[in-house]
Amino acid sequence: MKLTFTLVFALFFNNLMAQDPPCFSETFSGSTNGWTYSQGASIHSYNNPVNNCSNDRGIVTPGVGGNNPCQVKTPLITSNGGVKVKMTFDMFVMDANLKCNTWKDFACTTSMDVVYYVGSTAYQAAVDYTLPPNGPSNTSKVVVTFYVGPNLPAGTLYQVEMFFKFKSGVGNCVQQNTKYIFDNFSVCDLQEVAEKGTNHTITRSVPRSLVSTDASLLVYPNPTMGATQLNIQNGISLKQICISDMYGRIVKRQTSGTVIDVSGLGKGSYIVQMIKSSGERISNKLVVN
User: Helical H runs in the chain?
Assistant: First the structure.
């Protein structure tokens, strides 16, 4: 009887551990290493508005005033071998003085792009994901889930990079006297494929729903066998052009010119993404024959 109980307990314990893998988390309260962020951002103290205004620490960014996206990149994380990644963090929008009673909503709709890296390979995880409203009547918590498939086998080192910006297509929106606080970050590798929740997004490769087409980015010829030309409206300042395959892997990028040589790419469908100097990203589909 004792042996049976021991075996049953061991099986239960093993199953529990298999269903609840360890997560990487960071509260920025102690010694913090490996994080990188935009110029002007820093790990700084603030009064946490959801914790009785107690003293806390997080990455304080200069917001995205003037349409300049702010960027936060994690240290190296060791994968547990899940097929998707669940990422959570707190985001507080406050006045530049960081006083607790200045917690407020985003001045206009704010979104983020998410990219994860395995070595020198970059994978697009989420495009233009809308952050939930902020401020005292809403929530500070952001939860994003993205599908990684076989890209992160157990033991793989990877990093996640988040680009916070105004929602594409909403026009200019300057947030003066505003800072963002990024805090209480957690990322977990999960085994199950489906998850419910209104504040989750699951991206498999780059789904059609995440590809925002715009007349300001036309691709021709399309389909193509060799080179393709980007027709970009006058007055648009271009920062970078990226081409991703349907698994989200960035296979080609360039910082100048509007002609892209795709002769080295295999046949199939790709996503061409133009990144403006403002940080806005516009995408269109490209077929290589």
Answer: 2-19
pLDDT on residue 104: 92
The larger pLDDT score, comparing residue 243 to residue 203, is at 243
CATH number of 208-288: 2.60.40.1220
| Dist CA 95 CA 180 (whole Å) | 9
pTM reported for the whole predicted model: 0.65
CATH superfamily for domain 21-190:
Galactose-binding domain-like (2.60.120.260)
**Residue 286 to residue 289: CA distance in whole angstroms:** 10
Burial 245-284 (b: 16+ CB within 10 A, else e): bebbbbbbeeeeeeebebeebeeeebbbbbbbebbbbbbb
Cβ(27)–Cβ(90) below 8 Å = no
Average pLDDT over residues 133-139: 91
Q: Which residue ranges does the chain devote to CATH 2.60.120.260?
A: 21-190
DSSP code for 246: T
If we measure between CA atoms, which residue out of 32, 44, 127 comes closest to residue 73?
32
Higher pLDDT, residue 62 or 14: 62
Q: What is the 3-state composition of the chain as percent helix, strand, coil, each rounded to the nearest 5?
A: 10, 45, 45
Give residue 217's pLDDT band: very low, low, confident or very high (50, 70, 90): low
